[in-house]
Amino acid sequence: MLEEPYRWVEAINNRREYLEDQLSGGSPVVGMTYADGVLLLTTTPGPRKLFEIYNEIAFAAVGHPADIEKLRKAVIDIAHIEGFNLSARDVTLQRLVSFGIGPLMKAAFDEIFRSPFIARVMMAELDPVEGGDVFYTIDADGSFAQGGRVAAISGNEESARAMTAKLGQVDGALPLEEALDAALQVWGLGRLVLDSEEGQAPSESDVREFLKDGLQGLKVEAAVLDRERTVKSKFNLLTEDEFPLAAYIGA
């Protein structure tokens, strides 16, 4: 019996290593504020990765598509139950993370005879009045952190740190077109750091050169929580007409 706690710790460490390996190739997700709200951007070979959760709340993730879909559905259910039992104003990102998706992911991670969620999640909340927009990032073990006006998730911590540092230099009041360009550059930085064996920080010219060819076979996906929309739902998944990719990568 005395050995059991040590076996549990060893099993948890093995799960952590397994998740890091599984998530290592995940395409980064960029989150930032812009003049009219919140912008999310990523790439995907097929399945969507950016979603609306509830009116002014959006969801994005890196990981296994099936697990991303399970988490998306779970947090939507939690949001609608909150809205039904209380009111729409009580559906806040802080509650959804602290009492919903965070504990859900932690429980799956801690139960060693159950498969963990192979995913890292980013969620964003628009403040339609005062502009106090909020980001949360939730790791595969259920740990979460609140961000200010920017956030990033990626296949490893080094890539996410480089992206977050770069985002901290971006003006949060940019118009959408310029914000899309900035977000795509940050995505390219994160992708290059993720693929780098030596961990060297690429230059801006390296990023722009990479973007000319590095998006082959991928779909760039961008969505906004638009403060200027007059309907309850502030989420808008940008179309190719709204986001002409060639204009941002210099093709």
Could you name the CATH class?
A: Alpha Beta
Q: What is the CATH T-level topology?
A: Glutamine Phosphoribosylpyrophosphate, subunit 1, domain 1
Q: Taking Cα atoms only, what radius of gyration do you get, to the nearest Å?
A: 18 Å
How many helices does DSSP assign?
Answer: 7
CATH architecture: 4-Layer Sandwich
Q: Give the tally of β-strands.
A: 10
Query: What sort of overall outline do the alpha carbons produce when their principal axes are compared?
Result: globular
Output the strand order for the largest sheet: 8-1-2-9-10
Subunit arrangement of the protein = single chain
Largest sheet: 5 strands, antiparallel
The named CATH superfamily: Aminohydrolase, N-terminal nucleophile (Ntn) domain
Kindly estimate the percentage of residues that lie in beta strands according to DSSP: 15-25%
Termini separation: 64 Å
